[in-house]
Design a protein that fits this description.
About 25% of the residues lie in helices and about 25% in strands. With about 220 residues, the chain is an alpha+beta fold. It has an eight-stranded mixed sheet, sandwiched between helices. A hairpin with an 8-residue loop joins strand 7 and strand 8.
């Protein structure tokens, strides 16, 4: 855990050296594990959820949660240090090792090209990408209105992600590769995992379940990790 923001930026720069960002596509995974964390207003309590989804059916395969206190303050660009301890605990409670991780956040679409998806991917050495509801950095054209259309998101002349239409006529999400996955594969998965909703099902379910647990509501026992 960094001692302050400057130390956090130093750690990100050091870990960035371990990033692997392939440009070629790989065989699609059978499952993707979505991650999200919910915070209790007015306290340091938070709940992280890891939800594994079948890519073909978008059905939930497994859920695990972790509760605890966040130990690092909110600092833009350093969200990983606030969320990773509980997210790692939730991932560790899954019985099946994740094939691919998707975060409600960013991969290299980050000022130091090392967002939450990069951080988790490097620490676990697993493919990881981010799908965010809003853009953090970078500019690009609005994609065409049909589902599956996308436009490049660039910063300083570098392509750092894509603005992706996961539903026809609905505002896009922002996809960026994190580790061991190409941007093209991350884009395809973001679209494939989004059905009735704009947000991919793994992170949508992780958001729902983390909020349920935060409120003290149980979720079905067969889902517990």
């Amino acid at each position: 855990m960094p001692v302050d923001a400057a130390d956090g930026e130093r750690i990100q720069r050091e870990l960035h050296e371990h990033l692997i960002l392939p440009t070629e596509s790989s065989a699609p995974p059978k499952t993707v594990t979505g991650l999200d964390i919910s915070y209790e207003i007015g306290s340091e309590r938070a709940v992280a959820a890891a939800v594994t989804i079948d890519v073909t059916t978008r059905a939930v395969r497994e859920v695990a949660v972790a509760e605890g206190k966040v130990l690092f303050p909110y600092v833009p660009g350093l969200l990983a240090f606030r969320e990773i301890p509980l997210l790692l605990e939730a991932i560790g409670r899954l019985t099946a090792e994740p094939e691919v991780l998707v975060c409600d956040g960013y991969g290299i679409a980050h000022p130091r090209r090392f967002g939450l998806a990069c951080h988790l991917g490097v620490l676990l050495d697993r493919p990881a990408f981010g799908v965010a509801k809003t853009s953090f950095i970078g500019t690009g054209d609005d994609p065409a209105p049909a589902r599956g259309e996308w436009s490049a998101l660039s910063d300083g002349g570098e392509v750092i992600g894509r603005s992706v239409r996961t539903r026809t006529g609905v505002k896009p999400v922002f996809v960026s590769a994190g580790h061991r996955i190409s941007l093209a594969d991350a884009t395809e998965l973001a679209v494939a995992l989004s059905g009735r909703y704009r947000i991919p099902e793994p992170t949508r379910q992780a958001d729902i379940i983390s909020r349920q647990v935060l409120r003290g509501e149980p979720f079905p026992s067969w889902q517990r990790g």
